[in-house]
Amino acid sequence: MESVRRWGPSVAVNLILGVVAVVPLWLTMMFAVNHPLAELGLTTREPTDNDGTLPWVMLLTPVWAVFLALWIPLNALARPEAGVPGRRYWTVGSGLVLTPMVFLTALFVLVEG
Questions:
Q1: Are the C-beta atoms of residues 19 and 88 closer than 8 Å to each other?
Q2: Biggest alpha carbon distance in the chain?
Q3: What average pLDDT does the segment 58-68 reach?
Q4: Are 81 and 5 in contact (CB under 8 A)?
């Protein structure tokens, strides 16, 4: 029960921010599929995406900046003080932030086939 009380706010903050992180993660995935992975021949490029990478950089930079401006201070406030090493906390927090995106991607793959 003590661990739930200690980790509860951190888990809640990171899962809620994980829902917010779906937007920058999805946009990053779209960029990766259309540009670097397409250049390597691993995916096919979207035929209408012919503007290059500059619009993607102009979009992704502020989106990630806003998300990280939320994520870092909120995690610094929610981090339990007693007995949690910083490296472990930030690793668990990063994994929790990725959980909603992984769940939605797996659901999309299952539904779409």
A1: no
A2: 54
A3: 97
A4: no
